[in-house]
Amino acid sequence: MQASINFLRHNTAEFEKYVKRVLEINPQYSNLYDILANNCERLRLYKEAVAFAREALLLKPRDWTAMSILGVNLLRIGEEEEGKAALDKAYEGDQFNVMTVNTLKLLDSFGHFVRFDTTHFKVKLHEKEVAVLRPYVRELLEKAYDTLTEKYDFKPEGPITFEMYPDHADFEVRTLGLPGIGGILGVCFGKLFVMDSPTARKPDSFNWGSTLWHEFMHVISLQMTDHKIPRWFSEGLSVYEERKGFTGWGDKMKLDYLAAMKSKKFLPTAELNNGFTRPKYENQILVSYYQSSLVCDYIDQKFGFPALKKMLLLYKQGRSTADVFKESLGLSLEQFDEEFFKWVDDKVKNLDVKPFTELISSGQEALAKGDTDKAIEILEQAIYLYPEYTDEHNAYESLADAYLKKADKKAAIDILKKFAM
Ligand SMILES: [Zn+2]
Fold first, then answer.
1. Domains within the chain, CATH numbers bracketed
2. I want to staple 242 with a disulfide (CB 3.0 to 4.6 A). Which of 37, 205, 249, 397 is the partner?
3. CA distances from 144 to 76, 244, 252, 288, 370 (A)
4. Tens digits of residue pLDDT in 357-410
5. Cα(221) to centroid of ligand 1, in Å?
């Protein structure tokens, strides 16, 4: 534990002292490196996890846990052949390690994937959908690459591998070795990024283009900072870039985000990572994605995009978040939060969940009763108050209906266009 903490804090001398102390007590204790590897894995330091697993195996070549960790993480950094060889060995030694077994099954299923290269990516798509998806995937990957590498003035190290899974269970194994991360659509390991394919989910339940863009932005932010970027900032930037990528992309202010803002549930920036790793209420992870993206929006609006880029470069140097804010924005975290929360409060000052949903309901009731003019007035007002609200029971669709009742096709189309933005 002490060794992990010191390693992660880049405290080499202390780290080596603890390692030495443990190995003096038990020179065969390869478990020490297994623990270190696991902790690195958790922080998305896959290269480091591979290195520690190798250390464990030097001490004890029959440490099958280490062999399994080695295999899984080699796959994550794109070393497929060596990774498979390690997993085969791990399986020979221990047939009951779930990570090993699941990952080997997944590798078998790779036989059903078609591999092809684009200018900057190695791509794997399932044989049953490759014909349909290939042109779209190729075009969007290259567009994301051109747009974001130019904007961030950074060319990520390759080869970069992109995979799409029609079977969400395979995607889960690919990302964690274990099924069970229902809500997640995509994951990025630095040089490898993978996601559900459009057929893995019900139609309309997610926008795969937006997700691809989001995950590629992680390739940039992780590599630009040698994986030292905090989770919240990486997610915030990815959502921020989704919104810039294409009209309608990126998460909008949903009702539960509004509720969280009104009840002051946003976290101080210094604690924002906890919203992802140790959520305390339902939906806190999603609220934290949204908050992080707003932090990026705010910094962009107030300080300009170069400030966001500078933050990445400071994180690469291993600087703390407090340092990064001080140096790139000239503010302490407390000062930043004060400004940011004021901006957030201002955004929602005329808005609250219950009055807003009641307003839409009364507009829809008026429409149902045939009072079209009244419905239009109310629904227009609802959209004016809260243009981002496009989920179920939204004002846009009812308003378009109301215009159609008045035979005003043009107004109906205009409203539906705004709805899709
Ligand atoms: Zn993400």
1. 2-96 (1.25.40.10), 111-224 (3.40.30.160), 234-348 (no CATH), 353-420 (1.25.40.10)
2. 249
3. 21, 11, 21, 24, 48
4. 888 899 999 999 999 988 998 888 888 888 888 888 889 999 899 999 988 999
5. 11
